[in-house]
Amino acid sequence: MNIKSFVIESIDEMKNKVTWPTYSFLQNSAVLVIVASLIFALVIGLIDLGFENLMKWFYDLF
User: Fold this and answer.
1) How many whole angstroms separate alpha carbon 39 and alpha carbon 21?
2) What integer pLDDT is reported at residue 47 of this predicted model?
3) d(CA 56, CA 29)
4) Does residue 1 carry a pLDDT above 70?
5) d(Cα 5, Cα 13) in Å, to the nearest integer?
6) CA dist., res. 57 & res. 50, Å (int)
7) What is the pLDDT of residues 35-61, one digit of tens each?
8) Does the global pTM surpass 0.70?
9) Half-sphere exposure of 41 (CA within 13 A, CB side)
Protein backbone atom coordinates (compact mmCIF):
# COMPACT_ATOMS: atom_id res chain seq x y z
CA MET A 1 0.00 0.00 0.00
CA ASN A 2 1.54 3.29 -1.00
CA ILE A 3 1.19 6.58 0.83
CA LYS A 4 -1.23 8.17 -1.66
CA SER A 5 -3.79 5.38 -1.40
CA PHE A 6 -3.40 5.35 2.39
CA VAL A 7 -4.18 9.06 2.62
CA ILE A 8 -7.15 8.76 0.23
CA GLU A 9 -8.60 5.81 2.15
CA SER A 10 -8.04 7.57 5.46
CA ILE A 11 -9.90 10.67 4.28
CA ASP A 12 -12.74 8.51 2.94
CA GLU A 13 -12.99 6.65 6.22
CA MET A 14 -13.08 9.88 8.24
CA LYS A 15 -15.84 11.31 6.04
CA ASN A 16 -18.05 8.27 5.50
CA LYS A 17 -17.40 5.60 8.13
CA VAL A 18 -16.74 7.51 11.36
CA THR A 19 -19.74 8.38 13.50
CA TRP A 20 -19.15 11.83 14.93
CA PRO A 21 -20.86 12.78 18.22
CA THR A 22 -23.39 15.59 18.35
CA TYR A 23 -22.54 18.91 19.96
CA SER A 24 -24.94 18.34 22.87
CA PHE A 25 -23.38 14.92 23.56
CA LEU A 26 -19.94 16.55 23.65
CA GLN A 27 -21.19 19.20 26.06
CA ASN A 28 -22.71 16.59 28.38
CA SER A 29 -19.52 14.54 28.27
CA ALA A 30 -17.39 17.58 29.03
CA VAL A 31 -19.54 18.50 32.03
CA LEU A 32 -19.36 14.93 33.29
CA VAL A 33 -15.55 14.91 33.01
CA ILE A 34 -15.25 18.25 34.81
CA VAL A 35 -17.52 17.17 37.67
CA ALA A 36 -15.77 13.80 38.03
CA SER A 37 -12.36 15.55 38.02
CA LEU A 38 -13.47 17.98 40.74
CA ILE A 39 -14.83 15.17 42.91
CA PHE A 40 -11.65 13.15 42.44
CA ALA A 41 -9.50 16.20 43.29
CA LEU A 42 -11.56 16.84 46.41
CA VAL A 43 -11.22 13.23 47.59
CA ILE A 44 -7.45 13.23 46.97
CA GLY A 45 -7.16 16.60 48.75
CA LEU A 46 -9.03 15.29 51.79
CA ILE A 47 -6.86 12.18 51.92
CA ASP A 48 -3.75 14.37 51.70
CA LEU A 49 -5.02 16.67 54.46
CA GLY A 50 -5.79 13.70 56.70
CA PHE A 51 -2.39 12.14 56.08
CA GLU A 52 -0.67 15.47 56.76
CA ASN A 53 -2.50 15.85 60.07
CA LEU A 54 -1.73 12.24 61.00
CA MET A 55 1.97 12.73 60.32
CA LYS A 56 2.01 16.03 62.21
CA TRP A 57 0.37 14.36 65.23
CA PHE A 58 2.79 11.41 65.02
CA TYR A 59 5.91 13.63 64.86
CA ASP A 60 4.66 15.81 67.72
CA LEU A 61 4.65 12.73 69.96
CA PHE A 62 8.44 12.51 69.71
Assistant:
1) 26
2) 98
3) 40
4) no
5) 12
6) 11
7) 999 999 999 999 999 999 999 999 998
8) no
9) 6
Share of the chain above pLDDT 90, in %: 92
How do the domains of the chain map onto residue ranges? 3-61
DSSP characters for the chain?
Answer: --HHHHHHHHHHHHHHT--PPPHHHHHHHHHHHHHHHHHHHHHHHHHHHHHHHHHHHHHHT-
Provide long-range contacts, Cβ within 8 A and 24+ apart, for 36-42: none
Amino acid of residue 45: G
Average pLDDT of the residues of the chain: 95
